[in-house]
Specification:
Layout: E1 4-5, H1 19-28, E2 33-39, H2 52-68, E3 74-82, H3 93-96, E4 102-106, E5 109-112, E6 118-120, H4 125-136, H5 140-158, E7 162-163, H6 184-200, E8 203-207, H7 209-212, H8 223-231, E9 236-239, H9 252-261, E10 266-271, E11 274-279
């Protein structure tokens, strides 16, 4: 199992407990490295999960824990930074000034409603339908393609070290309620996005949260996307997107098995300040019901 997690949220954004609680659990599980990546502030918006004042406290807390636990575990300081043109990007001044160890780039919002509120497509089926109807005139293809267009723009311009949960747009699409992943237009949008990631040098995370939270039957991204990513030589690692200490390695065994199945033999993790390959070890493939 991968003995590192680089995507986690504490009570500084939408996680449940203190950063120290996560580290104590990481040490108990024998992890060698742990990265905190709370949601970055989104100023002048109602959708932010952290204030600029909260960011200052967060940065001090993680730096303090780095020193306190340096003999027990490697601690890294990051943020999950939303790409919302006009509101926040990876080069927003307060992101640059934070002097992070790495940045996770993510798209959680696609354009905005008429009142300027960004459309968060993950919350509920009703809000998803409202966004498609009001912003994209009911055209689901237009909405989904816009999501992937934003990811490509983020990656091409800012090259975040890690690209978060690539196909998160499918979270509420169980049973292909809104679109088919087999559709030619959808596959073309994903493959075009993978091509951009491949040329950027970014790491694509295999986010296990959707799996262990029973949102979907696979991680983000899923099996066929991982197979394409392997063909393109895109580096990956496992990320639990933990919002509670008990979740810091959940889904890793299943995720590792899926990576091996799709041809990956190693993941890329941060160790002693450098991104290095770490071999995947075979493990029994668990079903979603296990």
């Amino acid at each position: 199992m991968q003995l590192a997690n680089h995507h986690a949220h504490s009570y500084f954004s939408d996680g449940r407990l203190s950063p120290r609680d996560y580290l104590q659990e990481a040490i108990a599980q024998g992890l060698s490295a742990y990265g905190f990546s709370d949601h970055a502030p989104i100023p002048n918006s109602t959708v932010g999960l952290m204030s600029l004042e909260g960011l200052e406290r967060y940065l001090v807390e993680i730096d303090t824990l780095k020193e306190l636990y340096e003999e027990d575990i490697q601690v890294y300081k990051s943020l999950e930074v939303d790409y919302i043109p006009g509101l926040i990007t990876m080069d927003s001044p307060y992101i640059v000034e934070a002097k992070l160890d790495y940045v996770i780039g993510a798209v959680h919002f696609v354009d905005a409603f008429g009142d300027g509120t960004p459309w968060g497509f993950e919350g509920s089926v009703e809000n998803f339908e409202r966004g498609v109807e009001e912003i994209f005139q009911g055209d689901i293809q237009m909405a989904v393609e816009r999501y992937y267009t934003l990811i490509r723009a983020m990656v091409a311009e800012y090259r975040p070290k890690i690209v978060a949960h690539l196909d998160r747009i499918k979270k509420l699409n169980q049973g292909e309620r809104f679109f088919s992943e087999q559709s030619l237009w959808y596959r073309e949008a994903v493959e075009k996005t993978l091509t951009t990631i491949a040329s950027s040098g970014s790491i694509m995370e295999v986010n296990t949260k959707g799996y262990y939270k029973n949102e979907i039957a696979e991680p983000y991204p899923g099996r066929w996307v991982l197979a394409k990513a392997k063909e393109m030589g895109i580096p990956v690692h496992l990320a639990s997107d933990a919002h509670h200490p008990r979740d810091i390695t959940k889904g890793f065994e299943f995720g590792a098995s899926l990576l091996l199945e799709t041809g990956y033999e190693e993941v890329t993790i941060l160790s002693e300040g450098d991104w290095v390959p770490a071999p995947l070890k075979p493990s029994k493939l668990h079903s979603i019901s296990s």
